[in-house]
Design goal:
The chain is α+β, with helices and mostly antiparallel strands. The protein has helices spanning about 5-20, 35-45, 45-65, 105-170, 175-210, 235-245, 245-270, 315-380, 385-415, and strands at about 75-80, 90-100, 275-285, 295-305. It has a four-stranded antiparallel sheet with strand order 1-2-3-4, with no helix packed on it. Helix 2 packs across helix 4 (about 105-170) and helix 4 runs antiparallel to helix 7. The longest helix has about 70 residues, at about 105-170. It is rod-shaped, with a radius of gyration of 37 Å. The relative contact order is 0.16.
């Protein structure tokens, strides 16, 4: 993808470049919209980013709450309540009761949710990458859609030119009526293809507008080109980058640490809790010595919970199982990243090689073949079916070039973005499985590829 190997592609690219001056800032009215500006808008307006930040705040709130002592109990107490001449109404007072968890249970509970906070922070980074990756892939999808419109408009013009030539030759008796009809059918098919490309361009623009949270965004020039050289990537480097930098793996590791903390807390649950109770009370019972009321007294009770029947056996078993599941989830994600990297790199490499071949060799030859047949047809040296076949070949290989360029860019961006996609999927909650690995915007999580073209 280093040079411009075809007159057709270069002519269209040059026209687009002339309309999109490089270096212009997107803030200037009418200036090309830059990828950086779209990323900024998306990170500011995409609701999933606010959801991910809210999950961090919620986890911090749970950590704070888990470390607080139970609220005390305050109440009234009465004893020996009677109207007898000695007891005279009994004893009346107030009490305060406080349970104090022992064995470090509060600190262990707080640790669980501190690990959840780390997990939520990793998921925020994962969501940021999902949004940015989707913006980038849609950016190049828009560039490809614009190119398809330009290519099909150009081919529609060539088909219309062929209709004019056919009619002229028919009027001079050098062509038959079937030749005219065939050229008209081909021109109409090219027009239908142009309309389909325009519809596709509208679709990707609407998807881009939804992703950046700006439904007023309308088609306008973009500061970029589908012919830009695709990043050069290495298979093993891409895999190691995914395994070492993936925020989903970081979240999964934090999930393992959370499960470990939960197991430690469950094992500490049978430790006794200290229960303190005390307060003042007034004793109205008369003293034998002088006949006066006993008066104010203090009461103190101290107790411990005894783990006699409930030693949290079920809770420990559950926490142990959850730890095993979290460890297997980490292993699953590592294997999934290896699977996805191999799949996406195949798409990347196949389409990268296709782009090189189509740009340098296939498209220029198809265009030259069409022009030669058209020139010979004008001179009555070739039959129109030969022109028709050459025209269809030119259309097909040009479409395949644009498709391969788009897919090469999308695969490269997915690899650089650690295989994260799904910028409008709900941000994963702490404790839920990771989602969106390797997704293409607007598609299912798995990639379907057709042989040769590498289509998703």
């Amino acid at each position: 993808m280093r040079g411009c190997g075809t007159v057709l592609v270069c002519l269209i690219a040059a026209t687009a470049s002339a309309q999109q001056p490089s270096g212009a800032q997107s803030s200037v009215p009418g200036a090309p919209l830059t990828l950086a500006e779209l990323e900024r808008r998306a990170l500011e307006r995409n609701p999933t980013m606010a959801q991910a930040r809210a999950e961090i705040d919620a986890a911090k709130g749970r950590a704070k709450q888990a470390g607080l002592l139970p609220n005390p109990i305050i109440g009234y107490s009465g004893d020996e309540i009677s109207r007898g001449p000695v007891i005279r109404g009994g004893e009346h007072g107030l009490f305060v009761e406080q349970t104090i968890p022992l064995g470090g249970k509060l600190g262990l509970s707080r640790t669980i949710f501190e690990r959840e906070t780390s997990q939520a922070e990793a998921l925020l980074e994962a969501q940021r990458l999902r949004v940015v990756n989707d913006v980038r892939t849609l950016f190049y999808s828009v560039l490809a859609a614009e190119r398809r419109v330009e290519v099909r408009r150009h081919l529609a013009a060539l088909a219309a030119e062929a209709v004019g030539i056919s009619r002229q030759l028919y009027n001079t008796g050098a062509a038959d009526q079937p030749d005219v009809l065939a050229s008209e059918i081909e021109a109409r098919q090219m027009q239908v293809a142009l309309e389909a490309a325009q519809n596709g361009r509208f679709r990707v623009w609407r998807q881009l507008a939804a992703l950046v949270g700006d439904t007023s965004l309308t088609p306008r020039p973009l500061d970029g080109s589908i012919d830009e050289p695709t990043p050069e990537l290495q298979r093993e480097v891409a895999l190691q980058q995914a395994l070492s930098q993936s925020p989903e793996l970081k979240a999964a590791r934090a999930g393992v640490e959370r499960a470990q903390a939960a197991l430690a807390r469950a094992r500490r649950d049978p430790a006794p809790d200290l229960v303190l109770r005390g307060g003042p009370r007034y004793n109205r019972e008369l003293l034998e010595a002088d006949g006066r009321p006993v008066g104010w007294e203090a009461t103190v009770d101290v107790g411990l919970t005894i783990p006699l029947f409930n030693r949290n056996q079920g809770g420990i078993a559950e926490s142990r199982a959850e730890l095993g599941r979290a460890q297997q989830e980490l292993t699953r994600l590592e294997l999934s990243l290896q699977w996805r990297t191999a799949d996406v790199f195949d798409v990347y490499l196949t389409n990268l090689r296709n782009v090189e071949a189509y740009k340098v060799d296939v498209v220029p030859r198809a265009e030259e073949s069409y022009r030669l047949y058209l020139a010979r047809y004008r001179e009555m040296g070739a039959a129109y079916p030969q022109v028709l076949v050459a025209q269809r070949t030119l259309f097909q290989v040009t479409e395949e070039y644009v498709q391969s360029a788009e897919m090469a860019w999308m695969a490269a961006l997915q690899l650089q973005g650690l295989l994260l996609a799904g910028g409008l999927d709900a941000s994963p909650r702490v404790g839920e499985g990771s989602t969106g690995v390797g997704q293409v915007p607007g598609a299912a999580s798995s990639m379907n590829r057709t042989s040769g073209s590498g289509r998703w």
